[in-house]
Write a structure and sequence with these properties.
about 35% helix; four-stranded antiparallel β-sheet; elongated; 11 helices; about 400 residues
Length: about 400
């Protein structure tokens, strides 16, 4: 989305204001939306301005316009302000409200008195019992027709006005954008919960969401004892004799995760230390939240793009399609993980938190079994390293 530069307003701030403006309009807060348009100067709603003109709400129309341009900004702005004030003056004269007309002449129209001929002509209208006696106003109809004719003249100046350039068309983006962003934020917050509850009830947006631990939950230590724990406090290994270090290992099982298939390899998330990645014997991937014992994600093996695979791999799969995991591993940043298989392939997944797991990349890395894989990021450039039964180590 490309927006015109707004003085003192970064584009992301402008985008946020447009999203809030969309929310106000979608929920029927029209006056609040138009006030926000005026105060921000971000979007000029011609339909709103046109309605104010046709209803003869001249003060409201000027106030709205003033959020975008002032009378002296350019000749187009000057003409718009003049046309509205002139129409306001003519309507007062046409309704025989001379005191009001004189007040408009002395206050609203006085700013144009530098054009002496024009100002004198406007002043002379007060002396006429019917403004249509003026040669230039012979065709002046009733009030509504006069407003309707005037609004088209004003629209021409609106469209040509450089002060309104880029502000007459509201950028198009998906509806209910604010609610979508809030929902995405809540999903991310929920993915960070140590004890995520399925389908949580969100009761407030004024504080971050957090699932409360179940009453029977054992809160795991931060890093080093997720599946087991020890209740005794001990000094760090560097402060203990070697003979006592074994005594510090946690001995009590606090969580058992039941899999229908044999687990082959496991790896804990590098940041969310209760997220456990499991590879099982049939090539399937499981993701557990150890603290609560909830299985967040499960996917059985399948080839994502058979057409891209070698003939040798295809023939082998036709003869015997069995395949198993040889390695699962998280990337150092925890935003993706990889799985190496007993036949040729490595698959990389993208992890967005919780059960947000999506396939990203499939590589036929080796001829035969892929024995191991690792992630590396020298100089912030990410690499994937694999080794296999073909005797090769490869970098991708």
């Amino acid at each position: 989305m490309v927006l015109p530069d707004m003085p003192g307003m970064p584009h992301l701030d402008a985008h946020l204001m447009l999203i809030i403006l969309q929310f106000l309009k979608e929920h029927g807060y029209k006056e609040a939306a138009h006030e926000m348009e005026r105060e921000s100067g971000l979007y000029f709603d011609w339909s709103n301005f046109e309605e104010l003109i046709l209803d003869g709400k001249w003060n409201e129309a000027e106030k709205y316009l003033s959020g975008f341009t002032q009378l002296e900004d350019n000749r187009f702005s000057t003409k718009i302000y003049f046309e509205m004030r002139k129409q306001k003056y003519l309507e007062a004269l046409d309704s025989k409200d001379i005191p009001k007309a004189l007040d408009i002449l002395r206050s609203d129209l006085k700013v144009f008195e530098e054009n002496k001929e024009l100002f004198e002509e406007m002043t002379e209208l007060v002396t006429l019992d019917n403004i249509r006696r003026n040669n230039k106003l012979v065709m002046y109809g009733d009030t509504q027709n006069a407003r309707s004719t005037m609004r088209w003249e004003i629209k021409k100046d609106i469209l040509r006005n450089p002060a309104l350039h880029g502000k007459l068309i509201l950028p198009r983006f998906e509806s209910h954008r604010l609610l979508l962003i809030i929902n995405q934020s809540l999903n991310w917050q929920h993915s960070q919960c140590v004890y995520p509850v399925p389908n949580p009830v969100i009761r407030t947006l004024l504080a971050d969401h957090r699932c409360e631990p179940p009453e029977c939950a054992v809160v795991p230590p931060a890093v080093d004892a997720l599946a087991v724990t020890s209740t005794d406090d001990h000094p760090s290994p560097s402060q203990q004799p070697a003979s006592q270090i074994l005594d510090d290992l946690p001995m009590k099982v606090i969580r058992t995760l039941k899999e229908e298939l044999y687990p082959i390899d496991i790896d804990f998330h590098p940041i969310r230390h209760t997220y456990l990645l499991v590879g099982v014997e049939n090539g399937g991937i499981r993701l557990w939240e150890v603290g609560s014992g909830v299985k967040l994600f499960s996917d059985n093996f399948k080839v994502w793009n058979m057409e891209a695979c070698s003939t040798k791999f295809k023939e082998a799969m036709i003869g015997d399609s069995s395949i198993s995991i040889s390695r699962v591993i998280w990337s150092p940043d925890g935003l993706s993980f990889g799985a190496a298989y007993s036949r040729h392939l490595v698959q990389i997944y993208v992890f967005g938190g919780g059960n947000d797991v999506k396939p990203q990349l499939e590589i036929e890395a080796h001829d035969g079994r892929v024995n191991d894989l690792a992630f590396a990021a020298p100089n912030k450039q990410q690499f994937l390293i694999t080794c296999g039964n073909d005797g090769l180590s490869r970098f991708a």
